[in-house]
Amino acid sequence: MWQLKDNYKHMKVFLIDDQKITNVLNRKYLSMIREDLEIFDFDDPELAMAALETERPELIFLDLNMPIVSGWDILTFMRKRKIEIPVIILTSSNSLQDREKANLFHNVFSFQLKPLTKNGFNDLLQGYYLLDDSSTARKKTG
């Protein structure tokens, strides 16, 4: 299901958050960790869903609480279309219900409170690289 990139070369990442400043900051941190990341940020979740119809990033960082189209809507959209991409939730919600709901989506790799630091992104990327194609080998953090 999930594949490691050859020596972690060229990795496409989607940042989906309605707050532009959050995307700018997250892009900066990710670029500091890996200069070769191809980062696409979306402050309009509908545009992100349209991009997911044709693009397949290796990893998605997703906010939950967005107006009109929520992160839950995007996760449901991905499930219905069988889009198997690992997702790291970055949210301001510390709700136990949200954490439990996130666990119902098998592609959610981690549930993190924002803002995330550069070291936090580094740890998440290292955890992502440890994934293999066995669903039992997935590491859920958070």
Task: State the order of secondary-structure elements, H for helix, E for strand.
Answer: EHEHEHEHEH
Number of domains: 1
Structural class: alpha/beta
CATH third-level topology: Rossmann fold
| CATH 2nd-level architecture | 3-Layer(aba) Sandwich
Tally the helices. 5
CATH top level assignment: Alpha Beta
Shape summary: globular
Rg from C-alpha positions? Answer: 14 Å
**End-to-end distance, in Å?**
22 Å
The biggest beta sheet is recorded as:
5 strands, parallel
Strand ordering within the main sheet: 2-1-3-4-5
Q: What is the assigned CATH homologous superfamily?
A: Response regulator
Mean pLDDT: 85
- The percent of residues in helical segments reads 25-40%
The poorly predicted ranges are 1-7, 130-142
GO biological process, one term: phosphorelay signal transduction system
Domain Response regulatory: 12-129
Protein name: Response regulator receiver domain-containing protein
Modified residues (4-aspartylphosphate): 63
